[in-house]
Write a structure and sequence with these properties.
Elements (H helix, E strand, L loop, with lengths): L1 H6 L5 E4 H10 L5 E5 L19 E5 L6 H11 L5 E6 L6 H15 L2 E6 L3 H11 L7 E3 L3 H5 L1 H10 L4 E3 L2 H5 L4 E4 L2 H16 L16 E5 H6 L6 H4 L4 E3 L1
Parallel strand pairs: 1-2, 2-3, 4-5, 4-6, 6-7, 7-8, 9-10
Antiparallel strand pairs: 8-9
Length: 245
């Protein structure tokens, strides 16, 4: 698909995480604007955030960087758990950094991390069936495009197997997931459009710094918490942006 866009001489190519590197390999001249949950520097998309260089720039959702924060929030909600699971897509370009950062935070909290991997629908079912062997074990879901596309499935499986879960999107909590913490992707996609417009008016990707969100929302599904027998700590409730009843 990236090669086809290059053949068509697209003026700008806009991409999400899985397509960034294929697009970069397909062209070094056509401007590329990305939205990614990965660290764009560590993933090799740009040279630096302030001066991207080359023909790429875009928006970093900081979703992978928020993995440790999600772990802390879930630990605060389920403090008796000594081991917390982390679900990742092994095909994600940022999986090693996410896993490393979450494990470091877990050590500081005196917790063990169980890393689980899935990149297919069947794999997700297998992960939750495995968690059923350790009732009540909380689960942090890593930022990933495939997992985002299965937000409702993940929320349903969390309820089905009574697994306290946290993910990045409000839509996950609205679908029955226990809680979510992250930025609003709609704002990021809007910024991708703004950057594409600026490039079409003559600006260069190399001169447009990679943008990062500054606002993050914590959402808790109270109905799911009650179903799991979890009482919300008052200190956490006061910091919650939305409680879904």
């Amino acid at each position: 698909m990236a090669a086809d866009l290059v053949r068509r001489e697209a003026a700008v190519i806009a991409v999400n995480t899985p397509a960034v590197m294929p697009a970069k390999k397909a062209t070094s001249t056509i401007p590329i604007v990305f939205f990614t949950a990965a660290d764009p520097v560590e993933a090799g998309f740009v040279a630096s955030l302030n001066r991207p260089g080359g023909n790429l720039t875009g928006i970093s959702g900081l979703q992978s960087e928020l993995g440790p924060k999600r772990l802390e929030l879930l630990h605060e909600l389920v403090p008796k758990a000594t081991t917390i699971a982390l679900l990742v897509n092994p095909n994600n370009v940022d999986v090693e950094k996410l896993t490393r950062d979450v494990e470091a935070t877990a050590r500081n909290l005196g917790l063990e991390i169980q890393v689980l991997r899935a990149s297919t629908e069947g794999g997700l079912n297998g992960v939750f069936a495995r968690l059923a062997d350790t009732p009540g074990r909380p689960l942090v879901i890593g930022a990933d495009a495939f997992l985002v596309s299965r937000s409702e499935t993940l929320a349903r499986l969390g309820l089905q197997y009574a697994v306290p879960t946290i993910f990045q999107l409000r839509e996950f909590a609205a679908a029955g997931g226990l809680m979510s913490y992250g930025s609003n992707p709609k704002d990021s996609f809007r910024q991708v459009g703004i950057y594409a417009g600026r490039i079409l008016r003559g600006e260069k990707p190399a001169d447009l710094p990679v943008q990062q969100p500054t606002k993050f929302e914590l959402v808790i599904n109270l109905k799911t918490a009650n179903a799991l027998g979890i009482t919300l700590p008052p200190t956490l409730v006061t910091r919650t942006d939305e409680v879904i009843e």
